[in-house]
Amino acid sequence: MTDTSADTSADASADASVDTAGSGDAPAVANRRVEIEYCTQCRWLPRAAWLAQELLTTFETELTELSLKPGTGGVFVVRVNDEVVWDRREQGFPEPTAVKRAVRDRVAPDKSLGHSEK
Questions:
Q1: How many CB atoms lie within 10 A of CB 89?
Q2: Are the C-beta atoms of 113 and 104 separated by less than 8 Å?
Q3: In this structure, are residues 40 and 86 in contact, taking their beta carbons and an 8 Å threshold?
Q4: SS3 for 90?
Q5: pTM for this entry
Q6: Is the dihedral of CA 9, 14, 15, 17 positive or negative?
Q7: Residue range 75-91: mean pLDDT, rounded
Q8: DSSP state of 42
Q9: pLDDT in the model for residue 60
Q10: Closest-CA residue to 81 (of 67, 95, 94)
């Protein structure tokens, strides 16, 4: 039987070095996830994919994850870290600039959106 305790502690120290914010707390990457839930019955995948591309292009270094989540019943919801930032049922279909502002305010508040700010 081999001793794996040295391997385990090496893995733990490697994981601890992931904190890129330098705060010593949980890694900064935990608050940079976007999810777009869209209705498959309504065929809104192209709309969701286009919005995802817009967000990934705008926040290419700030986001750590962007996912498309199939749903039903007319859903089109954008979430940042599980917080709803846009819901079609309450706000209608979003303009990309509105979603970009909502995402920016949560993941990169100091980032300029250039012409989209106007």
A1: 10
A2: yes
A3: no
A4: helix
A5: 0.72
A6: positive
A7: 97
A8: T
A9: 93
A10: 67
